[in-house]
């Protein structure tokens, strides 16, 4: 039972050739991030500035703090509100949309370099997010997510800073994996902050009964689950499991399972173009392709075939949730 809901939703979030830059800025400066990445992680090593999301209030970013900005709307990082600096577009000439990000570049413009006492050193990773699985995690995030200094992000940041300052073979792979680490730490610290309101499925993972049930559903989504069989595996009565699951997650266990199966199926339909609808149905626990198609259309709003046609007509990449 090693599969948890949070880890499962992170499966489609893997850095691969992401924009990853480190630069030192002397005021005045303004960086305009235009790639429209689903997630952009911004960390200040020293100094500070302001993140100005499109259509949102500015957010101050101090040394050691991390902000995650949910796309696809562009945003600007400035030394101060109302800066006189002309914005420098970051990423527009090196975007690789099929990967959801861009390749590593150390610094974006020689014109914004500097090393004065009031300089700011910034690390940014524009994060690709793929598929319907990770969309469920994006849906749980605000447009701007703040994580303070310290905790797991601090350890990850030390490694990121050291690697970004180097120029060694295999650097892109190392940066991608460090960015994965940093993202997981930042999201975990945000969800677990005092007074926070994590998604119901995240908080429910800590419950000894519902947490076990969630891990079972994610580890074996294709199994012929009933509330009774799930209760047996978690060691409680059927009524206890049904009530605790609905109270903590916000929906009955089999409703949660149905939505999760359709999420898995949505990605399989696009990723495995040669697979038949019946094969996709069996992969997510349906022996009857017609029952699967009916469930898919009820939950997703279109038939599996229609979803596949729409999904394969463009590169597989997640579209960020609407604000």
For the sheet with most strands, the description reads: 5 strands, antiparallel
Helix proportion of residues, in percent?
Answer: 40-55%
Would you list the SSEs in sequence order as H and E? HEEEEEEEEEEEHEHHHHHHHHHH
Number of strands: 12
What does this 3D model show about the protein?
40% of the residues lie in helices and 18% in strands. Strands 1-11-3-6-12 form a five-stranded antiparallel sheet, with helices on one face. Strands 5-4-7-2-8 form a five-stranded mixed sheet, with no helix packed on it. Strands 9-10 form a two-stranded antiparallel sheet. Helix 9 crosses helix 11. The chain has 323 residues and is an alpha+beta fold. The protein is built from twelve helices and twelve strands. A hairpin with a 4-residue loop joins strand 9 and strand 10. The longest helix has 21 residues. The radius of gyration is 22 Å and the shape is elongated. The protein has two domains: 187 residues, Jelly Rolls (Sandwich); 110 residues, Orthogonal Bundle (Arc Repressor Mutant, subunit A). The protein starts with a helix and ends in an 11-residue tail after the last helix. This is AraC family transcriptional regulator. Keywords: DNA-binding, Transcription, Transcription regulation.
């Amino acid at each position: 039972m090693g599969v948890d809901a949070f880890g499962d939703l992170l499966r489609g979030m893997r850095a691969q050739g992401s924009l990853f830059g480190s630069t030192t800025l002397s005021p005045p400066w303004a960086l305009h991030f235009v790639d429209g990445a689903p997630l952009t992680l911004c960390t200040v090593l020293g100094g500070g500035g302001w993140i100005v999301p499109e259509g949102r209030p500015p957010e101050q970013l101090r040394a050691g703090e991390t902000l995650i900005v949910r796309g696809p709307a562009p945003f600007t990082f400035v030394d101060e509100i109302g800066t006189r600096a002309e914005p420098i577009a970051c990423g527009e000439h090196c975007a690789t949309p099929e990967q959801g990000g861009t390749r590593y570049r150390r610094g974006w413009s020689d014109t914004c370099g500097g090393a004065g006492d009031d300089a700011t050193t910034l690390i940014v990773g524009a994060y690709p997010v793929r598929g319907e699985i990770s969309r469920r995690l994006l849906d749980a995030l605000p447009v701007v997510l703040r994580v303070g200094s310290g905790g797991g992000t601090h350890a990850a940041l030390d490694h990121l800073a050291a690697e970004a300052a180097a120029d060694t073979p295999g650097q892109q792979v190392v940066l991608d994996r460090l960015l994965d680490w940093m993202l997981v730490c930042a999201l975990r610290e945000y969800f677990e902050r005092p007074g926070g309101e994590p998604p119901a499925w995240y908080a429910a993972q800590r419950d000894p009964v519902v947490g076990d049930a969630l891990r079972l559903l994610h580890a074996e989504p294709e199994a012929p689950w009933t509330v009774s069989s799930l209760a047996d595996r978690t060691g409680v009565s059927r009524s206890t499991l049904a009530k605790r699951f609905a109270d903590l997650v916000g929906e009955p266990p089999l409703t949660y399972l149905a939505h999760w199966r359709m999420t898995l199926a949505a990605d399989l339909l696009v990723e495995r173009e040669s697979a038949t609808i019946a094969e996709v149905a069996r992969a997510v626990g349906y022996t009857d392709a017609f029952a699967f198609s009916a469930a898919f259309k009820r939950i997703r709003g279109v038939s599996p075939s229609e979803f596949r046609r729409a999904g394969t007509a463009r590169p597989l990449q997640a579209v960020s949730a609407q604000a």
